[in-house]
Write a structure and sequence with these properties.
By secondary structure, the protein is α/β, with parallel strands linked by helices. The protein contains five helices and five strands; from the N terminus they run E-H-E-H-E-H-E-H-E-H. A five-stranded parallel sheet has the order 2-1-3-4-5, with helices on both faces. Helix 2 runs parallel beside helix 3. It is globular and about 35 Å long.
């Protein structure tokens, strides 16, 4: 089975590590970033299969715009992580494929990841 790569862009260090640990335990390759700029640097390392993006991150929406410009032919699926529910217009406009509200549980995270990627690597 393929190894999927996930880019987690989350400014909360503890939450980022929790997400990373759970996804790595299932066989995902996980890269982390703490800012828009760091996320863009991570994209230089290679195209991820999925991005988990903290909507509360300063310039998080700017990152989404840059991502969409970079991968126009084959968009990278994005799951937004937010403290407050994002409005539907924002989700549609940003072409976001899923969202999680903080605090969220691991089952909810894995359900969204599996829905977007089709399978979990070691499930």
């Amino acid at each position: 089975m393929a190894v999927y790569s996930v880019l987690v862009i989350e400014h909360n260090w503890h939450l980022s590590k929790l997400i990373k640990a759970n996804l790595q335990a299932l066989g995902f390759e996980v890269r982390e970033a703490v800012s828009k700029e760091h996320g863009l640097q991570r994209l230089e390392e290679g195209r991820p299969d999925l991005i988990l993006l903290d909507l509360d991150l300063p310039a998080g929406l700017d990152f989404l715009s840059a991502l969409r410009r970079r991968y126009t032919a084959e968009p990278v699926p994005v799951i937004l992580i937010a403290g407050d529910p994002p409005n539907r217009h924002l989700l549609q406009q940003a072409e976001v494929r899923g969202h999680l509200l903080k605090p969220f549980g691991v089952p909810g995270l894995l359900e969204q990841v599996e829905r977007l990627l089709g399978a979990l690597p070691n499930a």
